[in-house]
Write a structure and sequence with these properties.
The chain is 26% helix and 30% strand. It is α+β, with helices and mostly antiparallel strands and 281 residues long. It has 2 domains: 115 residues, Aminotransferase class 4, branched-chain amino acid transferase, N-terminal domain (D-amino Acid Aminotransferase, Chain A, domain 1, 2-Layer Sandwich), CATH 3.30.470; 153 residues, D-amino Acid Aminotransferase, Chain A, domain 2 (Alpha-Beta Barrel), CATH 3.20.10.10. A hairpin with a 2-residue loop joins strand 8 and strand 9. Helix 5 crosses helix 6. The radius of gyration is 19 Å and the shape is globular.
Length: 281
């Protein structure tokens, strides 16, 4: 098996050789942010948009780091998987390493940088999902490594045979456990509007723009759990999954229309838009 290559504080080595201090604030407090950037044959997909979101999250967390350095390290990692049809770079920045665990940061720290690159095995297979209470913190617009709410909820749903979940708060849909959510009804497409409890997905934004450029209506608004029962198709989007339809929602009356023309067109437009984007980069 070919070893996955990673980077830690600027040094690229096989991932298995990287050693991290137990006093890293990523480890003790989840005081860290991350980004996942997809690559196609070595070409970054929406690279600038991912970096921009990463930078914004760092600013919100008040982590000061040189993003020209971050970009160079991500691109250096991508070189190790440039022959793969699809791959991604995971990159994480923590506030730094404490001398001893402390909530308060009283001294200037050196940001801790870690990442790795690996291939993706894409799947368009429909997934099974379930609706769960959104138990996460209220600042999900920050792409923090603090994902315990996601992990607990997704693994509970796994016991029900689910591949993904649909978070809801006071009957309002927020997003998936590791994705954004869309659904079609009639000739329109709906997705929850961005708020602090929803991550502004780069792929989400890409597909919305692609659909609107083809004069397909996409409504960003409050979306409710009850609307899923009337949806013809529900689907998730993410950087590593692309667009993936939901076959079944175990605790809803949703029935997927496998001949739904709106989803079919959305999927075709999304895939063609990726090809067009990559041909220009």
């Amino acid at each position: 098996m070919t070893d996955i290559f990673g980077i830690y504080q600027g040094k690229i080595t096989p991932l298995s050789e990287i050693k991290v201090s137990p006093l890293s604030r990523a480890y003790t407090f989840s005081d860290s942010i991350y980004e996942v950037i997809p690559f196609y044959k070595g070409k970054g997909f929406c690279f600038e948009e991912h970096i921009s979101r990463f930078n914004e999250c760092a600013n919100l967390m008040r982590i000061r780091v040189d993003f020209s350095l971050i970009e160079n390290e991500i691109l250096a990692l991508a070189e190790y998987v440039k022959e793969e049809d699809q791959s991604y770079v995971y990159y994480q920045i923590s506030r730094g390493i404490d001398e001893i665990r402390s909530h308060l940061v009283r001294t200037k720290m050196v940001p801790e940088r870690f990442g790795y690159a690996t291939k993706i095995t894409p799947s368009t297979k429909p997934v099974v999902s379930m609706i769960v209470d959104d138990i996460r913190w209220k600042r999900c617009s920050i792409k923090s490594t603090s994902l315990l709410g996601n992990v607990m909820s997704m693994n509970s749903a796994l016991n029900e045979g689910c591949d993904e979940i649909i978070f809801s708060s006071e009957d309002k849909i927020t997003e998936g456990g590791a994705s954004n959510i869309f659904f079609s009804k009639g000739n329109e497409i709906f997705t929850p509007s961005l708020k602090e409890n929803i991550l502004p997905g780069v792929t989400r934004d890409f597909i919305i723009n692609a659909l609107r450029s083809e004069n397909i209506s996409v409504k960003e608004q409050d979306c409710y759990v009850s609307q899923l029962d009337q949806a013809s198709t529900v689907w998730f989007t993410s950087s590593t999954k692309g667009i993936q339809p939901v076959e079944k929602i175990v605790n809803a009356n949703y029935t997927r229309d496998t001949k739904d023309e709106v989803f079919r067109k959305a999927s075709l437009i999304f895939n063609q838009s990726i090809e067009d984007y990559l041909s220009k980069t």
